[in-house]
Structures are given as C-alpha cells and as structure tokens.
Amino acid sequence: MVRVLVYSRVRGEDYLDGLTRAAAGTGLEARRAGTEEEAASLAGWADVFFGAGLSPAVLLSMPGLRFIQWIWAGVDVPLSHPEFARALVEGRFRMARAVGVFDRSIAEYVMAFAYHVTKDIPGLMRAQARQAWDRRPVEGLAGKVMGVVGFGSVGSAIARLASASGLEVWGLRRTGSAGGRASPAVRMFGPEGLPDLVAGVDFLVLALPLTASTKGLMTGDLFRLMKPTSVLINVGRGAVIDEGDLVSALKAGRPGWAVLDVFETEPLPGASELWTIPNVVVTPHIAALSQPHDLVPLLLRNLENFRAGRPLEGEVRGDLGY
Which is catalytic among the residues 266, 304, 307, 317? Predict the structure, then answer.
C-alpha cells in the first residue's frame, strides 16, 4: 500500500481526483489536506507527498516519508531550509520536481514576447488608439541572436522554438556543454562566458533555478553590457535579478526592454517601479501553470522509478540546489 498525501493551494481537489482515477486498482491510497494543519495531522500516515507549497517543517515531521513529487519546477523554498536540504542529501527521502511538463508553454511565452517587441505590437496598438494609419517598418527575428541562460529542459525547448523562427541560439549551462541533449544551440558557454553572451545577444532569456550561485546573478555590471536594443526575458526565478539594478539599467537604456514573469517578491509590490517603467512587461507568473493532467502521470512514472531504484524524472539534488 502506497499512501499519498496531496496538498496544493490551487486545484487540490483536481489533483486528488485525477490521482484517484489514474491509480484505481493499484493499491495506492490518496488523501488531500486543505491546510497545513490538516497536513500535519496526516504526517504519521503518509509515505509519499504529492504537491507543493507545504512548509519544510511539516514535511520533516512525516516519519515515514520516502518520496516527494513536487508539482512546481522550482524547489528553492524547501531547499532553503537547512534541515530539509540535509535530510535530502543524507537520503532520508528522495525528491523530484516538475520537469518536462512546462517546457512548451514557457517556450511559447518567450517567443510570443520576442515577436511582441520585434514587430512593435505596443507601437501599433498605440497608433490604433489614436486612429493613426502609421505604416512603420517592423523587423523580423531571422538573423538575430537569442541567449538562453539555463539550458535544462525548459531552456532546450526555448532554443528549439527560437531556432525554428530563424534565430541563432547561444546557450549557457553550468557544465558548459549541451549535456547530450539534441540541441539547436550553435554556441555553448559555461558560467565564465556569461559576460560575452550578455554582450552579444539581442534577446537574453533567463531560465535559471534559484540557488546560492544564481541568486543576484544579474547585476548592473552585466546590464551595462547589453545592447540598447536588447530584450531581457525572465522565466526562471525573480531573485536571479537584482531588481534595483534592473530599474536603474532600464532607465539608462540597457536593456531596451524587459519582459518579467517572475519576481523576488510575488505578487509584485505596488510600490515597485517595474509596474510603470516604459518598455517593461509584467506578467503574474503565468508563463506555465501546474496542471493535474500533466503531473499525475509524472507522479505515477516516478513512483515506478522509485520502487525500481531507478533515477527519477527531475530528481532533485540537495547539493546542487535543484
């Protein structure tokens, strides 16, 4: 018998229903907790956790916990808890994050805003509001360069769509190589090559996890290297950017645009200047959303992997921070 505790502040009932239907007859029992208090009351019952947003303290209070399937791509919050990270490193339980399920949606978001800026959609809409027949020239994407910083599954998906649109793609990853993935990137960088990549691209896409080495990575020194016509797109984690430095950089004209789906504090505070700076697009962390129909099958595959002692899809390493 596998006992799964389901917890999500959004669509929790749908996750429970989807799992119950998909696992019917397999010996899996699932219960949903609607609050942290309910989850704590089930701590002694569960051996698998399926969800996200539950405090590390409650997860650590589960004596029989052996496997966690996180339904978000980011695991920076639980791993920021030292005892939780230590328990993961020591093998008290295994953990997987959501991988593969967000790739296409995030890649489409990136390309939508690449076209949005390149085709000057904001300018055309302003002209329409003035009832002005303004036949201005607009550019295409072909021949421009997109740099993707963070070349995991999401970064690879972005690269594929970008390449199909005629963009040259540069990629950066921790190991400095494509890691064996089928990748359209024509030029790969390691971390030491970040300044060169930033200075050479027309679109700079951040698809990084939040770790000790990526927190505050993008500062004024790097923004000053960007082309005045360049576009910054962040679909990774907000705290990768020093937002104060970004505000100053945008006012100075480098980069020319910023498209931001993630922020250090969410919701973005009303006092943030990012709301009102021209040439900034703010979206409320919607480049990709967790969906039960994607994540229930991932959980079931990873339960099989766990039982067989195989690597997990999206296995989290506490020593790396993702």
Answer: 266
